[in-house]
């Protein structure tokens, strides 16, 4: 039987094809990245990145989560929806490396510091990484677009494309329902209290909360200040006198502690929203871009509408 001569270029092409099949290329934060194989050992840094992965049915492949923001019970029990909690905040590089992950997903840029846990260092040892698009440097204000891109990209990497499309459809349906709920109604002003630990921390014009409030038919009472983060004093807030106050409920700054401050402080207790009990608590992870953002906009629209009815009847 005659031997078939194999050209060298054919062997090279076959080799390259096999490498392409093993390395999945994807875009994230405006750069091209590669994942050697479908991830089987995923670590989520930040609770809202874990929530997005869990919604994509990645739970069986998740081996750890770090930095819970508002689930004290999971923190105490060491399990978050069946996934081990590996650190109260970000894990050390030694802890992260010991888990031998093949994909690390972060929710905030701080998840990948410029040390041995940086995305470049992880990539150098064959570990894939992904940062939620809303946390990328220089990102725009299209936060709901960021969530859609996260779902599409991670859905493809996890081979969960159909689930990703379903979640995007649910997000859009919730946003449409929120818009229909507040259409034709007054637009209340809302002050967002992120933390009271070092002053009254909030967000200005740039930031997700302002976008979330607009989706719920409200406006950020400090939207005129072109900054993503700001700290206001009590007298400035009293002069601003918002219709409603939105309180983040976080492990490091519980909503209950914020409420005590608002009711006991001699200046803050004079705010209309405090006197008339127009305060809304939401878990911190619902106040950052993530898988719950559509449902949060709809819930917020309903609760704001309820507060408006109460105010009108008083």
Which terms summarize this structure?
Rossmann fold; 2 domains; 314 residues; alpha/beta; 6-stranded mixed β-sheet; 18% strand; 41% helix; disordered N terminus; 4-stranded parallel β-sheet; 12 helices; globular
Brief write-up:
The chain contains 12 helices and 14 strands. It is an alpha/beta fold and 314 residues long.
Set down the secondary structure blueprint.
Layout lengths: L7 H15 L1 E5 L2 E5 L6 E4 L1 H9 L6 E5 L5 H6 L1 E2 L2 E5 L5 H6 L4 E4 L12 H6 L3 E4 L11 H15 L3 H22 L6 E5 L6 E3 L5 H8 L3 E2 L9 E3 L1 H7 L3 E6 L5 H10 L7 H4 L3 E5 L9 H21 L1
Parallel strand pairs: 3-4, 3-7, 4-6, 7-8, 9-11, 9-13, 13-14
Antiparallel strand pairs: 1-2, 5-6, 10-12
Helix pairs in contact: 6-7, 7-12
Class by SSE composition: alpha/beta
The number of helices is: 12
Taken together, the total number of domains comes to: 2
Distance between the termini: 97 Å
CATH class of the largest domain: Alpha Beta
Description:
With about 325 residues, the chain is of the alpha/beta class. It folds into two domains: about 20-160, 3-Layer(aba) Sandwich (Rossmann fold), CATH 3.40.50.1980; about 170-314, Nitrogenase molybdenum iron protein domain (Rossmann fold). The chain contains twelve helices and 14 strands. The protein has helices spanning about 10-20, 45-55, 70-75, 95-100, 120-125, 145-155, 160-180, 210-215, 235-240, 255-265, 270-275, 295-314, and strands at about 25-30, 30-35, 40-45, 60-65, 80, 85, 105, 130, 190-195, 200, 220, 230, 245-250, 280-285. The protein has a six-stranded mixed beta sheet with strand order 5-6-4-3-7-8. It has a four-stranded parallel beta sheet with strand order 11-9-13-14, sandwiched between helices. Strand 3 (about 40-45), helix 2 (about 45-55) and strand 4 form a beta-alpha-beta unit. Helix 6 (about 145-155) runs antiparallel to helix 7 and helix 7 runs parallel beside helix 12 (about 295-314). The protein is globular, with a radius of gyration of 23 Å. The termini are far apart.
């Amino acid at each position: 039987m005659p031997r078939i001569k194999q050209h060298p270029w054919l062997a090279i092409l076959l080799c390259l094809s096999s490498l392409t099949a093993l390395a999945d290329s994807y875009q994230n934060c405006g750069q091209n990245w590669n994942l050697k194989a479908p991830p089987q050992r995923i670590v989520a840094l930040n609770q809202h990145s874990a929530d997005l992965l869990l919604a994509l049915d990645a739970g069986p492949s998740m081996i750890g989560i770090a930095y819970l923001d508002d689930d004290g019970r999971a923190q105490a029990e060491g399990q978050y929806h069946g996934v081990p909690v590996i650190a109260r905040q970000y894990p050390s590089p030694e802890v992260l490396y010991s888990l031998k992950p093949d994909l690390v997903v972060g929710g905030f840029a701080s998840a990948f510091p410029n040390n041995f846990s940086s995305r470049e260092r992880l990539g150098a040892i064959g570990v894939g990484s992904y940062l939620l698009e809303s946390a990328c440097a220089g990102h725009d204000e299209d936060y709901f677009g960021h969530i859609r891109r996260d779902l599409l990209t991670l859905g493809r990497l996890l081979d969960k494309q159909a689930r990703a499309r379903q979640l995007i459809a649910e997000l859009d349906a919730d946003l449409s329902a929120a818009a229909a709920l507040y259409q034709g109604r007054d637009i209340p002003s809302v002050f967002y209290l992120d933390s009271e630990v070092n002053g009254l921390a909030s967000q200005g014009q740039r930031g997700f909360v302002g976008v979330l409030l607009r989706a719920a038919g409200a406006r950020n009472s400090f939207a005129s200040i072109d900054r993503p983060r700001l700290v206001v004093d009590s007298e400035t807030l009293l002069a601003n006198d918002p219709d409603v106050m939105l309180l983040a409920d976080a492990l490091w700054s519980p909503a209950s502690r914020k409420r005590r401050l608002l009711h006991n402080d001699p200046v803050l207790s004079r705010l209309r929203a405090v006197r008339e009990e127009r305060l809304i608590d939401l878990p911190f992870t619902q106040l950052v871009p993530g898988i719950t953002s559509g449902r949060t906009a709809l819930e917020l629209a309903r609760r704001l509408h309820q507060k408006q009815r109460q105010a009108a009847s008083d």
